[in-house]
Design a protein that fits this description.
heterodimer; A: 177 residues; Cytochrome C3; three-stranded antiparallel sheet; 3 strands; B: alpha+beta; 12% strand; globular; disordered N terminus; binds iron/sulfur cluster
């Protein structure tokens, strides 16, 4: 009884928390797809196929520190967040800051001795380390553009595509100095 | 080869310095004691186990520092195969303040990638070796260079234990040394992280107070036994550096000099430093000569490469 109520609450929280990132559809075990776009800059947003990953993963904990209705598993998090709002949310971005290394973030993750947030990854780092880490061991795609297509701004940034440098006329002068 | 060259160079400096040391002020000698770095200076902890070699950091640096367009796209992995003389991987240049190197380590499942840039030493050899005080270490941690006072003697390039400062020949009249400045002008002095740190998708680099980073680094080592070599490169090397490294491969296997010792290079040239005021008065003339000579050499070299 109580369990079900909790789950529903968790689901509601999840919807609230992930909704702003964009469109999503639902499957039985959580969202079907999630649009990960809050950091999109040089790349388009990632349309994350959550349902597919649910099928591949052995448990939610492969990706999430905790799932709705369950206490966080990370011993560092459990110290303070056994229950409460933080434990209820399962969205990466609710704990991993998208403003990593901002003065506020530095205060929390480095300077404040009252907090156990030392070195807590930002959102971008959390995504990439989690996704790429698993894709490397599981043989999933690991190329940047396998997950998000680079946009024009990104091409300019990387001096690639139509912004690629013209090949050196003389050739053979590839080495560093 | 190179190291010997540096040693004999510094030795020469010492011998020269000894003669004039007596007339130098003792103030400089004191300053050359154990500074140990500014207490609240910032730093960067680089976790080499996390780097995937995407070179986003290089692209970010190029943009932030307004550097010339690269010879190859920043997503072109063929740069990893480029070798300098002696089979060494590419290094920082006047056009690239940071470069990522690739190491194929026997027994390691994937290649190891290593980002190279100025380490922003607590007591920088570039700074202490410079006769005209062109370098300064800011309280925030960056080692800055002032091209308006530089005479182009290139002593800093020889003194730097990490082979970082590069020389720009783009202007023969005003040659300047170029290196990573930890994004001081545009970011660090406003409390913002360097562009390369912010751009890295893997959060390979952690920006923060150096003292916090050190704790974090040792914590990471003890949290994951076996995942790291039990050493934070840059904690003590040459008196400590603002940029520090964690690795799963012994540092000497991936191009780090593990024989630099814990003493800042300043100690070896202390006597030499005491002659700075004297140098300021008598050396400019000498260096003008050096300068012209090196320009001639470079002009000739450029002719060479053109043909
Ligand atoms: S951006 Fe990060 S992961 Fe990519 S090469 Fe640079 S340090 Fe490595
Ligand atoms: S790494 Fe080299 S250039 Fe950078 S501060 Fe140290 S001595 Fe100077
Ligand atoms: S700190 Fe700034 S100048 Fe230095 S390598 Fe990074 S982006 Fe380039």
């Amino acid at each position: 009884m109580g369990g079900r109520k909790k789950t529903l609450m968790g689901m509601a929280a999840l919807m609230l928390l992930t909704a702003p990132t964009g469109a999503q559809s639902w499957a039985a075990d959580g969202p079907g797809t999630v649009e990960l776009g809050s950091l999109a800059n040089h790349y388009s947003a990632v349309t994350f196929d959550h349902a597919m990953h649910v099928g591949v993963a052995t448990s939610c904990a492969d990706c999430h520190h905790h799932t709705t209705g369950l206490a966080p598993t990370d011993p560092n998090c459990v110290r303070c967040h056994k229950a409460g709002a933080q434990a209820q949310s399962v969205s990466c971005k609710d704990c991993h800051s998208d403003k990593r290394f901002s003065p506020e973030d530095l205060e929390k993750t480095g300077g404040n001795p009252q907090l156990y947030h030392k070195g807590k990854l930002g959102l971008k780092g959390a995504y990439h380390q989690k996704c790429l880490g698993c894709h490397t061991t599981m043989g999933g795609p690991t190329g940047c553009q396998d997950c998000h297509a680079r946009n024009d701004q990104g091409d300019a940034f990387f001096h690639s595509g139509k912004y690629a440098p013209a090949p050196k006329a003389s050739g053979g002068h590839g080495g560093g100095h | 080869m190179k190291k010997l060259h540096r040693r004999s160079f510094l030795k020469g400096g010492l011998a020269g310095g000894a003669a004039i040391a007596a007339v130098g002020t003792s103030k400089h000698a004191e300053a050359a004691g154990s500074f140990g770095g500014y207490p609240d200076s910032m730093g960067v902890l680089v976790d080499l186990t996390k780097c995937v070699g995407c070179r986003t950091c290089e692209a970010a640096c190029n943009k932030e520092q307004g550097l010339p367009a690269p010879d190859k796209s920043f997503d072109d992995p063929s740069v990893f195969e480029e070798k300098r003389e002696g089979g060494l991987p590419r290094r920082t240049t006047e056009k690239a303040y940071t470069v990522v190197q690739k190491y194929d380590v026997p027994g390691r499942e994937h290649p190891l990638f290593r980002k190279v840039q100025c380490n922003h030493c607590n007591e920088p050899a570039c700074l202490t070796s410079c006769f005209v005080n062109a370098y300064k270490k800011t309280p925030e941690g960056a080692v800055m260079y002032d091209h308006t006072v530089c005479v182009g003697c290139r002593t800093c390039m020889v003194a730097c234990p990490f082979y970082i400062p590069a020389y720009s020949y783009s202007s023969a009249i005003n040659p300047v040394v170029k290196k990573c400045i930890m994004c001081y002008d545009t970011r660090l002095k406003f409390g913002k992280p360097p562009a390369c740190v912010e751009a890295c998708p893997q959060e390979v680099m952690t920006f923060g107070k150096r003292k916090d980073l050190l704790k974090m680094a040792h914590q990471r080592i003890s949290d994951k036994p076996g995942a790291y070599v039990d050493h934070v490169y840059g904690e003590t090397e040459v008196g400590g550096t603002a940029w520090m490294y964690l690795s799963d491969v012994p540092f000497d296997k991936i191009g780090y000099d593990t024989h630099l010792g814990d003493q800042p290079i300043i100690s070896y040239v202390k006597e030499f430093l005491t002659i700075v005021p004297m140098v300021l008065t008598i050396w400019p003339a000498l260096f003008t000569g050096f300068h012209l000579l090196s320009n001639r050499k470079e002009a000739l070299k450029n002719e060479d490469t053109k043909s």
